Amino acid sequence: MKTEQRTAMRELGAIGSTFGPLWDTYFESAFYIHGHLCGGMPLGFRAGLAALKALGAERELDMAKLVFVETGTGHAAGCFADGVQMATGCTFGKGLMERTQYGKWALTLVDRATGKAVRVSVRPEVMQASFASPFVQQRKQGTAPSAIPVEVSRPLVEKQLARPNEDLFVISPVFDYPLPAKGKASFNLVLCSVCSEAVAENKARVRDGEAVCIPCSGYGG
Q: What angle (nearest 5°) sits at the alpha carbon of residue 215, between those of residues 210 and 219?
């Protein structure tokens, strides 16, 4: 990572302190995890914060919330999802994030305990301005995002951070979002009888009376 990128990430991350305690740490970390400066990730971060505020909820530390993010793959500004993940704490690894592949810059955050949810979408004019920016024009020409000069990428981030939520997002009223009952997590392991690798017990299959992993089982999940 170039020094100027690292410096900008640290300085921009510090702006997160305006969101509350620890948010500068989360925001700076979001830049590093994402890997480059761009407008999409910070926009997702702000959207995730707006969703938490609308629900009166804290950033998720465990598994009590779920987020459906409406971006997908194969389009610009999918970086939005990384920002949502970092802000809400609904991480892919914890199984709390699902992408709908709608190709929209929106999210629905659901609180499992209350059954309440909120949808936050980026205003169309904000996305149109982002897609007309010098940053996206360079991306269209094939320039890798990390190779775009900081003087091009940083103003886009700063502009988004300076705007109030109402200028950036449409935030729905809180609504009911019933979820199916959540199954219990498995804390048990078995060893695959074919490859000998450790497998979560609830993901193992049985072949010829022996526990096997899905790849060794010969059939799908």
A: 80
Nearest to 12 by CA among 20, 2, 1, 26: 26
Say if pTM beats, i.e. exceeds, 0.70. Answer: yes
Burial class from Cβ neighbours inside 10 Å (0-12, 13-18, 19+) for residue 97 reads: buried
Instruction: List, in order, residues 6 or more apart from 96 with CB less than 8 Å away.
Output: 60, 63, 65, 66, 67, 89, 90
Query: CB count, 10 Å around CB of 199?
Result: 21
Residue 74 DSSP label: S
Going by CATH, does the domain composed of 186-221 fall within 3.30.60.20? yes
43 in Cβ contact with 87 (< 8 Å): no
Determine the Cα–Cα distance for residues 71 and 99; give it in Å rounded to an integer: 6
pLDDT at 169 over 70: yes
Q: Which amino acid is at 200?
A: A
pLDDT class of 182 with cuts at 50, 70, 90:
confident
- Domain residue spans in the chain? 3-176, 186-221
Q: At residue 61, what is the residue type? A: L
Angle at 109 between CA 37 and CA 12, to 5 degrees: 20
Name the fold adopted by 3-176.
Answer: 60s Ribosomal Protein L30; Chain: A; (3.30.1330)
